[in-house]
Amino acid sequence: MSKTIAINAGSSSLKWQLYEMPAETVIAKGLIERIGLPESVSSVSFDGDKHVTVKDIHNHTEAVAILMNDLKSLAIIDHFSEITGTGHRVVAGGELFKSSVLITDEIAKQIENLAELAPLHNPANAAGIHAFRALLPNATHVAVFDTAFHTTMPPVAYRYPVPNDYYDKYAVRKYGAHGTSHMYVSQKAAEYLGKAPEELKLITAHIGNGVSLTAIDGGKSVDTSMGFTPLAGVMMGTRTGDLDASIIPYIMVKTGITDVNELIDIFNKKSGLAGISGSSSDMRDILKGREEGDEKATLAFDLFINRIQKYIGQYLAVLNGADAVVFTAGIGENSGPVRKAIVDGLSWFGLDIDESKNIVGADGIISTAAAKVKVLVIPTDEELVIARDVEKLSQ
Ligand code: ADP
C-alpha cells in the first residue's frame, strides 16, 4: 500500500485529495484558498471532521509546506516519505502532451513554457509541481493534462478558419479542457450502457462553474466546445462562451477600456450567468431567482440552457447521431431542473427523461426505456483519474 496525493492548483487555490493506493480509498482531502491574499484559508477533511486554519499564505510553495505539515500534525501521516506519488492536474498541455507523463526537469520546464496558452493556470500548476518535487524528492511525480483527451480531435475540429500562419507559427487552434472529466464519465457511461467505449457515440456535458461539451466517437474526443482557451463554447458561470470577436474593439471604443486584457478578464470573470443575472454566477441562486419571478435570473437561465442545447445539436450532427448524452459536474450532477430543461427541448432527436429517475443523487441512466438517445448522470472524479495515472506510471 502507498499514499498518493492528487493536486489541482489554481491561481489562488490548491485543492488536494490523499489516496491509499491501489485500494483507491480517500484518506483525507482539502482546499487552500486565497493564496497570496490576506487571511488565506486551509481546510482539511479527515475522519469525518473538518479542520480549518486561517493565516497568510503568500505563495504555492508555502501552501504545499502548510498542507504537508497539516497532514503530519493531524496524524494523517507520520513521515512525508509515506507519500510515494503526487499527481498534478495541468490545464494546458498544448500539442506536446497526449497522455500523462512522469515529471522530469525538462517536463517541468515545458509545462512552464506552455503558460502562454493558460496564463492563469499553468504557472500555478508548475508552482505546485516544484514545491512537491522539492519536498518529496523520492516520490513519483506525474502531470495529468486537461487537454490530453482532446488531442485525438481531427484538424477539421481543431483548426480555426484564420490565416494558416496563425496555426503554423503561433499554434492557434482548439485545445479544449476538462479532458480528464470527459474521459472518465464517458468510460463510466459505457459501463452503464453495457458496451465497450469503442462501440459508442457519446456527448458528454460537464456543467459546473466552467462548462464544456465533448463529442466522443468510439472512446475518442472528436470535438469539444472549449477552444484555444476555456473562454469558448457555451455560456458558463462567469464566462461568455462563443462571442463575435468584433464586439471587442466596439466595446473598447464605447467604454474607453484601452487594455484588451481588461476586457478579456470581464469576459472570463464577469459574464455568463453573473453578467446576465447581474447578481450571481451560482446556478442555485439563478434557480431561486427564476422561481421568484426575477426576469434577469430567468433570462440568464434561458440563455444557459439554449447554448447547451445548441451544442448538443451540433454534436448530434458531428457524430451523425449519438447513443447517449451524459451529464456531470456541479450542475449536471445535482440539478434535475437544468437537465430537464435541456432535454425537453431535444425530444425531436429522441431524448426523453424519466422524471422518476431525474432526482437528487441520480447516478446512471435517467432516460425512459423508449428513448432513442439515452440520458445519463455520472458524478465526475478527476482526482481519481489522477491518482490512477500516478499508480500506472509508478510501475
Ligand atoms: P467547478 O467548475 O468550479 O469545479 P462545480 O463543478 O463544483 O464547479 O459546479 C459549481 C456549480 O454547481 C455552481 O453553479 C453551483 O450552483 C452548482 N450546483 C451545485 N449544487 C447544485 C444544485 N443542487 N442545484 C443546482 N446547481 C448546483
Structural write-up:
Its cofactor is Mg(2+); Mn(2+). Homodimer. With 395 residues, the protein is of the alpha/beta class. It contains 14 helices and 14 strands. The chain has helices at 60-73, 105-113, 122-135, 155-158, 164-168, 179-193, 247-255, 260-269, 272-277, 283-291, 295-318, 329-334, 336-344, 382-394, and strands at residues 2-9, 14-21, 25-33, 40-46, 49-55, 83-90, 101-102, 140-145, 201-207, 211-217, 220-224, 324-328, 364-365, 374-377. The strands form two sheets. Strands 5-4-3-2-1-6-8-7 form an eight-stranded mixed β-sheet, sandwiched between helices. Strands 11-10-9-12-14-13 form a six-stranded mixed β-sheet, with helices on both faces. Helix 2 runs antiparallel to helix 3. The longest helix has 24 residues, at 295-318. The site of adenosine-5'-diphosphate has 13 residues, from helix 10 and helix 12.
Write a concise synopsis of the structure shown.
By secondary structure, the chain is of the alpha/beta class. The chain is built from 14 helices and 14 strands.
Could you list some keywords that capture this structure?
395 residues, alpha/beta, Nucleotidyltransferase, domain 5, 8-stranded mixed sheet, 6-stranded mixed sheet, 14 strands, 37% helix, globular, binds adenosine-5'-diphosphate
- Ligands present: adenosine-5'-diphosphate
Number of domains: 2
Tell me what the CATH architecture of the largest domain is: 2-Layer Sandwich
What is the beta-strand fraction?
A: 15-25%
| Count of β-strands | 14
Shape: globular
Largest sheet: 8 strands, mixed
Poorly predicted regions:
none
Contiguous helical run count: 14
| Share of helix, binned | 25-40%
Helix and strand content put the structural class at alpha/beta
